[in-house]
Structures are given as structure tokens and as C-alpha cells.
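Progress note, project year one: complex with NAP.
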Amino acid sequence: MKNVLLVGADGMLGGELRERLEKIYNVTGTTIETLDITDKDAVLAKAKEVEPYFIINCAAYTNVDACEVHEDVAKKVNGDAVLNVAEVAKEVGATFIHISTDYVFDGKLDVDKAYTEDMEPAPVSAYGRTKLLGEQNAAKAEKYYILRTAWLYGLGGKNFVKTMLKLSDTMPEIKVVNDQHGSPTSTTTLCEIIEQIMEKEPAYGIYHSTNEGFTTWYDFTVKIMELAGRDTKITPISSKEYKEMYPQSSDRPTNSQLSKEKLHSVGIYPRAYEEALANYLKEELK
Ligand SMILES: NC(=O)c1ccc[n+]([C@@H]2O[C@H](COP(=O)([O-])OP(=O)(O)OC[C@H]3O[C@@H](n4cnc5c(N)ncnc54)[C@H](OP(=O)(O)O)[C@@H]3O)[C@@H](O)[C@H]2O)c1
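Model obtained:
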């Protein structure tokens, strides 16, 4: 059994990934309490103890709006600390798997097009800037996979789907942005992609790793309500209107659709987002 060091193992993605990988690998999962990745000596000591074949980083500062106010803290976790993990991975000969985001792109691409891995990132938010730095640092590991995901939701964390369900418990109407395009992605699908990357070990590099299919936050919410059997009225609004309602909110890319052609080329085919959402809701609403 290969050894795996999984950092950020109690986050929304990390928690589910840990549970799944434990069935196939010898997993050491760490949390911020047991291993703060901003402490390089601690990361190195842990890696020497575990002797990992893979080091997976699910740790991050993920509150997109808070990143605007605390960009220095976000940079430490999403950017600088990734260099610690990458350098340690290189030193102990491990393959580094790092999770990044569609928010590294500016979103100005025509909405009938999707970003490929070789397109130039140009983040419009503090979160995106710090995650881009993280990507640049992750690549220093040499043996690395950077998996860019998007609009992530899962059972073990705060996320958009849960927020919409909670709002629909009390509100007759929810206003949702209808001019941002992307791929909602369930943590279960992302875990499946990570497992296949670990099994197949394709060429190192960046892989866009989301559910299949594209939508807007508005259409996604309509789908959530339909599948959850709720009759809450969902009203479309523009990003501009949303920003007027919440001036502190971070700018977000208009189009962050990620092409999965490269993932397909290595034999990985994620499920459609509608199917992943239905599976998630079955568990969430139990
Ligand atoms: N959520 C999304 O919509 C989304 C979209 C695209 C990409 N991603 C990426 O997907 C990955 C997983 O996201 P997620 O939603 O599962 O995140 P999450 O639930 O916020 O989990 C992140 C974990 O990292 C921990 N952490 C923070 N600082 C740390 C440090 N210095 N050392 C060790 N651990 C630390 C957090 O601990 P505390 O909770 O105690 O701070 C938390 O347990 C991240 O790389 C994220 O950027 C997420």
C-alpha cells in the first residue's frame, strides 16, 4: 500500500477524500491543528516520518470575499505555504497533488468557449491572485498535478447548495446572479478524479477537474430547487445588481468554464453536474 500525506484533511474536500483514500492507501491526514502548512520545518518533519508516495494539499484559505480584506493571510496559506509543501515533496521524492481554482482566470472569454489549461491566467480577485501564486509554487515540486476545480460543494462543508436550501426554508424568493458561467462540482466527483489521477499517473501538469457541463448560478439554483422539490421563487439578477446589494463582495469571473479535453485525453470522464447534484441532494436531504 502506498503512503499518502493528506494536508487539510478536515476541510470539505479533504474530509471526504480522506475517508475514500483510506480504503486504498495508507493515509496520514493532518489538520491545521496537527500540521500548519505555513511551518515548513513541521511539513518536512511530517513528510520524513510518513515517507509519502503522494502528498495531497486540500488546505486553503477559501473564503473568497474575506480574501479581499485579508489578502496577506490568504497569500500565506494559498501561495507561500504551497511552496513549503512543494519543496518538501521534491526533497522526499513524493508526487504533489495540489487543488486550485477556476478563479485564476479573468472570465472575459466568450461564453460559448471554455478555458484550456494552457490559457493565460489573469485573476480578478485576491483569492484568485493567491491561488495563482500557489499554482506557480506547486509547479516547483517537479512531480506535480495541479487540479483546477470550481464551484465546489460537498456534505462536509459550508457551500452554495446548502446556502440555497437554507434560504429556501424561510424565504419566498431568492435573487441569484445569472451572468456568471461555470461548472458546479461535487466533492465526490473531484475525489473520483483525484483517485483516477493517482491510479493512472498521467503526464505531470495542470488538469481542469470539474463536473461535466456548464451553467449559471441562477440556472443551477433553479435545478437545486427542482431536484429538492422546493417551490421558492428564483429571480435572476446581474453581477452588477448583486454588487450593489453586497458592495464588500469580491469580483468574480463572468465565464470560468473549464475545458475537460485534457482530462478526457488521459481517460478520465467526470459525471454531468446534474447527476452529481442529484446524488448529493439524496444524501444532504436524508
Ligand atoms: N469551495 C469552493 O467553491 C472551491 C472552488 C474552487 C477551488 N477550491 C479549492 O478546493 C480546495 C478544497 O476546498 P474546500 O472547499 O474543501 O476548503 P475548506 O473546506 O475551506 O477546507 C480547507 C481546510 O484547510 C485548512 N487550513 C487553512 N489554513 C491552513 C494551514 N495554514 N495549514 C493547514 N490547514 C489549513 C482549513 O482549516 P480551518 O477551517 O480551521 O481554517 C480547512 O480545514 C482548496 O484548495 C480550494 O481553494 C474550492
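The chain has eleven helices and twelve strands.
The pocket of NAP is lined by residues 7-8, 10-14, 32, 36-38, 58-62, 77, 81, 99, 101, 131, 149-152, 157 (CB under 6 Å).
No further modelling is planned for this target in the current period.
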